[in-house]
Write a structure and sequence with these properties.
This protein is mainly beta. The chain folds into three domains: 149 residues, Immunoglobulin-like (Sandwich); 80 residues, Immunoglobulin-like; 91 residues, Quinohemoprotein amine dehydrogenase alpha subunit, domain 2 (Lipocalin, Beta Barrel), CATH 2.40.128. Helices cover 11% and strands 48% of the residues. It has an eight-stranded antiparallel beta barrel. A five-stranded mixed sheet has the order 12-18-17-14-15, with no helix packed on it. Strand 19 and strand 20 form a beta hairpin. 24% of the residues are buried.
Amino acid sequence: MTFACLTAAPSRIRAKRAAATILTAFAIVAERGAMAASEAGRAVGTLSISTDPAGADVFVDGRPVGQAPTEVRTVTVGSHRVRVVKPGFLENARVVDVAAARPTAVRVTLTRAATESREGAGQVISGSKPKGSLLSNKWLWIGAAGAGGAAAALLASSAKENLTPVIGSVNVVPNSGLQGATVISFTAVGVRDPESAPITFTWDFGDGTTGSGEATTHVYNVARTFNASVSVSDGKNTAVSNGSVTIVSLTGAWRGSNAAYSLTLTHAGSVVSATWDDVTGGLSRRWSGNGAVTPPRNLALTLTPVLNANGPLSISATLDSTGNILTGSVTGFSSPFNLDVRR
């Protein structure tokens, strides 16, 4: 029996010393808070305390102030210890800075106590404190062992809330293009992470394809207006921003503005099939063939005679910014011919 008592004594002594260290830390914080309040000319503020679940007993600097949720008015400016206690939950405490002329809100989510290993355990959470304070910007936890004896530990770790990355905008250049040809550039502008954490970029071009990187490019093979989006993630939170681009197709009937002819085009992906009908001078001539579009908004066709025509035609044209005018050159006629068709 004497040996058992001697063995348990050092454990109790260590627990008492740890508890004394913790109480000393809170005393230092409270003293510095009181000094700050005195220097501020006894200015006061309002302290609002709520808990989840509600109904916890609330103490400010060791003085009971009611049950949460509660509001304490005329609290001196500076650091104050807020403690909340509710049966069946770990005890929580927080050192809070109270500012003058504006309310300070404290919300505590209580942790349900375990039935055995956490019996008698407590949790202390510190909030923001004056510069240079002993417990500045740290979370604290105090635990007492349950079954085998009493011990205390003081652990500190950073407890900043992770903030979402910021995106300024999505830059799209150009904001319109030719199907299967125009290379559209996308850039996420003004991106930053508040904690300077590594971030990743994921693009959704709106046509079922994706990309990556802060800046990327894409060629659309279908004509319509697309809403492209970028997701910027730091691994925990994600921010999203959008940009739009309009893609046009050459499919349709194009009529000559400088002579009596027409060009009928069918555009699929980057491939274009064409029929040229020429009724200049009362003649009815036709050529047909195919070709392709190339960046940024160009068209090249090779047509062969189909009706009342002699020799092939080669067409080189460029689509204007409106998407409704094709201009270029035609070779194969007896003299050079300028292409100018509109729809």
